């Protein structure tokens, strides 16, 4: 079988949130006020201890103007690897096995 994998570098929401906050010069307390959350909540999101629910994820996406998309918080929504298979090799290997 001839497989090759291509890695897509997609940052997790916790990294994106921290990067957005630092790039804009906000403290966790200031970011918390922008989002309407507690500072402890922002801290937990940035450390990846907890994930925001859909409502909070959407608030973060809107308030950051899309820089921290809701899809970045869930591994199931973030593509990591693309699997490419050469159909000729797949067909020829399956016919040679039989």
Describe the structure.
The protein is 50% helix and 10% strand. Helix 2 (28-35) packs across helix 3. By secondary structure, it is mainly alpha-helical. A two-stranded antiparallel sheet has the order 1-2. It has five helices and two strands. The two termini are 15 Å apart. It has helices at 13-23, 28-35, 39-47, 54-63, 87-97, and strands at 3-7, 81-85. The model is unreliable at 1-9, 80-89 and 92-96 (pLDDT under 50). It has a domain at 12-78: 434 Repressor (Amino-terminal Domain) (Orthogonal Bundle), CATH 1.10.260.
Order of helices and strands: EHHHHEH
Instruction: Classify the beta-strand content into a percent band.
Output: 5-15%
Spatial gap, N to C terminus: 15 Å
Largest β-sheet summary: 2 strands, antiparallel
Give the CATH level 1 class of the domain at 12-78. Mainly Alpha
Beta-strand segment tally: 2
- Globular, elongated, flat, extended or rod-shaped: what is the shape? globular
Q: What's the helical proportion of residues?
A: 40-55%
Structural class: mainly alpha
Q: List low-pLDDT spans.
A: 1-9, 80-89, 92-96
What is the strand arrangement across the widest sheet? Answer: 1-2
CATH H-level homologous superfamily name of the domain at 12-78:
lambda repressor-like DNA-binding domains
| CATH-defined architecture of the domain at 12-78 | Orthogonal Bundle
* CATH fold field value of the domain at 12-78: 434 Repressor (Amino-terminal Domain)
Average pLDDT figure: 78
> What's the Cα radius of gyration?
20 Å
Count every helix, treating DSSP H or I runs of 4 or more residues as helices.
5
